[in-house]
Amino acid sequence: MRIRPSPPDGLVDWARHWLPQKQVSLLDTVVLDAAGKTEAWLYTSKSGRVCVKQKTSWEQIGRRFSTFLQREEVVTAIHQDGKRTSLSAVQWQRLVEDKAARHRLLRGIVALQPCRPAADDTKELRCRATGGDIVVTPENCYSDQLRQATLALEQEDVEAVFAVDKQHHLWLVDARRINLLA
Q1: Which of 42, 50, 47, 45 has its CA nearest to residue 153?
Q2: 151 three-state secondary structure
Q3: CA separation for the pair 159, 161 (Å, rounded)
């Protein structure tokens, strides 16, 4: 495994600096600047690489995100402090269509993702890479895939969080450095 210097903490910074061209399936993530404007849209291509789309419209994002899941909470908002909240279908529609509402709804938010896909019997899966060891919590039928996906991040001292969709595809939904001194 080739190790690079540690990236900044949190998925948004990882997405900006480290994930493009990695062979890791990243859940579509729209990165916002401080004014709430779209900075970049990261997605996984059909070849399995993380790609960055710089120019995009809220209408395009709205169409793409609404194809993921048809349920009450449609979008996960990632705040500056790493906290996550869900936007309802009504809030999402208002955000896409109304510029004034968008400005109000996006205050303090640094990224948006479709709500995490999950198979009925699968919860959030975590992989922790420290000192060359990769530990999957909980151990499950996806453990080998999780270890490979975490290795593809090319980092030590990291915790990666994945979700599994109904087609049993793994999606990276968060990644953080582990503070080994804590």
Answers
A1: 50
A2: helix
A3: 7
